[in-house]
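Page 37, continued from 36.
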């Protein structure tokens, strides 16, 4: 069994939905109606996020994912991962390819490749000051400026605020680097980027599409880093068409 919160819903081929590292699995709420009846979706709160317990020491995010699959009785599944969720999906494809049937990597991260995120001098100064005084609310506000420049509603703001401690902590996930190993991935892969996402994420998306053998790519122009929140119907169409191919 798993100690992580998860939800198993819908019918059809299974797909696990893995959220970004600044929010939790509620970010998939707008996406789910567009795949209902077409996919069996399993979404979960990663360790430290949402309704799942905080880490207490080193752990494996891939082992956490496998624990959710075991609890749901799923032997093999597609992974739809965004940002941190994409990073975990890549790790799972390398470490446990027996449990993964396909990858959809959206605005993905990559273990072992630091991101050079453009921030203004003013944001950097505010960040340093907020860290110094332990002001989590201000850290969440800066996160929103960087990762959700298209704006936030009450629900999205709440997710940033409620998950800011985990998103800004040193994550002790003990996964080895995936950078340099992308050529080992032998799974159908779709790489999706957002036209209004940060430049470093989109540059990484280009790298993933180039280095993962046979990877396809797509771009959703009117989306920042919160892709499934901004363009749920368009993302759902891309996912369904890719997995049905």
């Amino acid at each position: 069994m798993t100690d992580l919160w998860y939800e198993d819903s819908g019918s059809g081929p299974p797909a696990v939905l893995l959220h970004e590292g600044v929010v939790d699995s509620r970010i998939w709420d707008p996406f789910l109606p567009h795949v209902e009846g077409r996919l069996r979706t399993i979404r979960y709160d990663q360790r430290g996020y949402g309704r799942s317990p905080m880490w207490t020491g080193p752990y494996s995010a891939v082992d956490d994912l496998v624990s959710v699959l075991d609890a749901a009785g799923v032997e093999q599944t597609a992974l739809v991962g965004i940002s941190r969720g994409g990073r975990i999906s890549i790790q799972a494809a390398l470490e446990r390819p027996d449990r993964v049937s396909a990858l959809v990597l959206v605005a993905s991260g990559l273990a072992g490749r630091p991101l050079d995120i453009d921030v203004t001098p003013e944001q950097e100064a505010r960040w340093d000051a907020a860290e110094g005084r332990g002001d989590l609310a201000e850290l969440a506000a800066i996160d929103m400026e960087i990762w959700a420049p298209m704006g936030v509603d009450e629900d999205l703001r709440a997710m940033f605020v409620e998950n800011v401690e985990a998103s800004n902590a040193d994550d002790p996930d003990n996964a080895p680097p995936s950078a340099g190993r992308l050529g080992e991935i032998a799974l159908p892969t779709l790489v999706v980027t957002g036209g209004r996402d940060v430049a470093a994420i989109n540059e990484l998306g280009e790298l993933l599409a180039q280095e993962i053998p046979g990877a396809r790519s797509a771009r959703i122009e009117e989306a920042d880093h919160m892709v499934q929140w901004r363009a749920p119907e368009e993302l759902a169409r891309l996912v369904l068409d890719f997995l049905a191919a």
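The mean pLDDT is 97. Flag for discussion at group meeting. Strands lie at 6-10, 14-18, 40-44, 77-82, 100-106, 189-194, 216-220.
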